[in-house]
Input
Amino acid sequence: MTQYEQSSLFSSPTAADAGGSYRIQQPSLLLEIQPDVLEAWKNRVFHYQQRIREQPTPQQGALFELDDSPGAIADTLNPFTLPRQNTEFWRWKATDSGVSSVYFVIDEVLPLLLYVGETVKSNQRWKGEHDCKRYLDNYRMIHYTHQLPTHLNIAFWQNAPKATRPRQHLESALIYRWRSPFNKENWTFWGTPFAGGKP
Output
């Protein structure tokens, strides 16, 4: 971070020297988010998503009335019912590159849907750089610091469209339906504190 960049909500300015120059320090998320604030934030997300989970699923009509629009799929797809695997799955040796998928990062403790993403190669998506990995690291560290439990998993829905645009439209519909807080589209909605700390 340069001395002129805007700091995050959780950083604090300090006087660097007697000359009075002003410098922004790297955000210290771990020291500044109190456990009660963290739990209140998580509970707001949980209660919102719980209302979505409790909504009745739209009933399927006749075979020829099948609505495969992104909105219709998003209304019926419940990420919490999908099989889960560890978020470190990408480290495992895979025999293929995977398939087109929409994926969901879930903290099983409450549970919370934290992130929705899409990929054309489910076994390769998280290799290398991925912003969500940083958000999850921040999330884990804050919980660890306050000795709070967390259990992060990922679920893949492998019936996603193979074509990029329709898959991205489905991802977007799911992000707005579930208001997953780690997706940038919802940062303002939730005041998401875990997105900072980019090296």
The chain has six helices and six strands. Confidence is low (pLDDT under 50) at residues 1-27. The chain has two domains: 1-27, 33-190.
